[in-house]
Design brief:
globular, 16 helices
């Protein structure tokens, strides 16, 4: 099966570019040039150099011995939390800032949920010397205050989105409105969502995760592929990167974990594949949470980075064709998984990554299997939430 998009950016029936007429020239410019740019020798040299010397790649593939003993299987953690800025988001922002420079763009806009993409964008904008505006839901600004401070220190302007649930969806809406009014800017999208070519371009930049994973598994085991890869999915950028070089290898089970929030049937959830249906959101056709009239259903998750009412079109394609196993974890299950990893391995994960870890209790594992969990980010930004629940439990 082909897991690359066609020329119009469709993965099967998902994807495409559904944008207002004013944005069409921008999107077309990117569509016509992104592959030529990122496949050029000069781009690849600069991209790989920055990933190595600036972002700190390759990230380790860590054998989690105590976690493995607990679950009676062999578990590795891909340590994206150890990159510069503390999450996988830096891989994509380095790639896109180079694309923006190749296109001659003079300013950057972005949206962010947990703040990790915003911090990564502010970081590369500072590196490139370009002005940067980051839209962020007002609710997310409150629960991710340390990342707001980091973005401002890096020189970015953080603009609050005060509509709807005041989270990632609303920040994305505001960023698109800004882009329509200022088409000369470069919109640096943080996940495998949005109009073509963003889902494909972001997946390519994040594919360094699975590229390194193959090499590192060969060095540490007798095989270059695991039996299972587990990653959390909001929009799905870290999962796309962790799955990318194994999409054609049917021996590898790809497990995507969505945020169930307070429960799938609670009305307070972000579990798109369990509650959503096909439709168009933020420029592409995919699976999204919506009511019978096609209005977006407000998502909810304790994790700001997963608090999004849709998934990227590649993930919708993997779900529909059953190449990926999609499941969910509640707030409570994610918190328990985060505390478990912290106490067994001395690693505090981001709340997003904690959802992936929660899957270990829900899937069937065998002693001779190799499992990789993509640890997409570190938990410093979530300390206030962790302490709140820690104090409540004691």
């Amino acid at each position: 099966m082909n897991y690359n998009p066609d020329e119009q950016g469709f993965y099967g029936e998902f994807g495409g570019a559904f944008v207002p007429e004013m944005l069409y020239p921008n999107v077309e410019e990117l569509q016509q040039n992104y592959l030529k740019i990122i496949n050029s020798d000069s781009f690849q040299t600069a991209f790989k150099q920055l990933l190595k010397d600036y972002a700190g790649r390759p990230t380790p593939l860590y054998f989690a011995s105590r976690l493995s003993k607990k679950y009676n299987t062999r578990i590795f953690l891909k340590r994206e939390d150890l990159t510069h800025t503390g999450a996988h988001k830096i891989n994509n922002t380095i790639g896109q800032i180079l694309v923006a420079q190749h296109l001659g763009k003079k300013s950057i806009i972005a949206e962010t949920g947990a703040g990790q993409h915003g911090v990564a964008t502010a970081t590369v904008a500072a590196l490139a010397g370009l002005p940067c505006i980051v839209y962020m839901g007002e609710t997310d600004m409150e629960r991710q205050a340390p990342n707001v401070a980091r973005m401002r220190m890096l020189g970015a302007e953080v603009r609050p989105a005060r509509s709807g649930s005041r989270t990632l969806k609303d920040a994305t809406n505001e960023a698109i409105r800004h882009w329509i009014n200022h088409p000369e800017t470069y919109y640096l999208i943080g996940s495998v969502v949005g109009p073509h070519p963003y889902p494909d371009m972001v997946a390519r930049f994040q594919s360094v995760i699975s590229e390194e994973m193959k090499k590192q598994l060969s060095e540490k085991t007798d095989c270059d592929h695991p039996d299972k890869i587990i990653a959390c999915v909001g929009g799905g950028s870290n999962a796309a990167g962790a799955f990318y070089h194994y999409l054609d290898n049917e021996k590898v089970e790809l497990i995507a974990v969505e945020a169930e929030g307070l429960g799938v049937d609670s009305g307070e959830t972000a579990a798109t594949t369990q509650t959503g249906s096909e439709g168009i959101i933020h420029g592409s056709r995919t699976l999204l949470m919506q009511n019978a009239e096609g209005q977006i259903t407000e998502p909810y998750s304790i994790s700001a980075g997963l608090d999004y009412p849709g998934i990227g079109p590649l993930h919708a394609f993997l779900f529909k064709n059953r190449r990926g196993t999609f499941m969910g974890a509640t707030d409570r299950e994610a918190l328990d998984a985060a505390f478990e990893l912290t106490r067994l391995e001395g690693i505090i994960p981001a709340l997003e990554s904690a959802h992936a870890l929660a899957a270990l209790k829900k899937i069937r594992l065998k002693p001779d299997e190799t499992v990789v969990v993509n640890l997409s980010g570190r938990g410093d930004k979530d300390m206030e939430t962790y302490l709140k629940y820690l104090n409540k439990d004691q």
